[in-house]
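Sample A.
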Amino acid sequence: MKIRGESIHAGQALVISIVGIHHNPAIYPEPDRFIPERFIERKYSNFEFLPFGGGHRRCLGSGLAEYTMRITLAEIALRWELESAGVDRDIRHDLAMGPKHGVKLRINGRRNPKRE
């Protein structure tokens, strides 16, 4: 069988490169830059954004993970003043991709301390 001019032989494994998709400049202009606004400005399809894999191998806990993340981030953003405390250019490439040394933030204090 041939796909886009490439021969695929019987028994040969094919995999989707999630890192390759997430670094495709046709889908993500300036893919190496941290631009979180890109997810507000555009709705990506299930074939363009795959943080939990895709198809029948999609992570079983993805719904709970996304829900928990939204609540946690909202609580942090509402209660604390944060600012970036450094730039990490090294990227970790393993099961998941992300900043190699974490994300350094400085806590400047509580927002509206009477709200509790």
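Sample B.
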Amino acid sequence: MTYLIDSDYIADYLKGKSPATTLLKTLFPKGIAISIVTFAEIYEGIYYGHDPERYKEVFRHFLKGVRVLGINQETAKQFALIRGELRKKGQLIPQPDLFIAATAIHHNLTLVTRNLKDYTRIPQLRYYQDPEASPS
């Protein structure tokens, strides 16, 4: 497993938007995972979006071969370290993003996201941005 995919790319993938579909198909053989937080965010979008049955099926298909990483004690400790450092600097980011970053760091994964505004505040986080993607 090499990459942790953030919610923005999963949402675009489910909608069939390129470059998300192209990028994820390219990264899939290298091993991809999602955080349980992303899992929850995507299901919220499915449940309260249009055509929930269709998107549930697309997401179920996507999840085949994708590991969903939970929050364990070590991930929670990493979250605490990141949040404490950001709070000291007055640069807090949303808690879901902190848990996703902590998951990537704990599992030594590169985060695939377009949310560089928040994630670049975390120096120990490795992130990948598709050069073909437009910023969000």
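B remarks: The chain has one domain: 3-128. The helical segments are 7-14, 20-27, 36-48, 52-63, 73-89, 95-106, 116-119.
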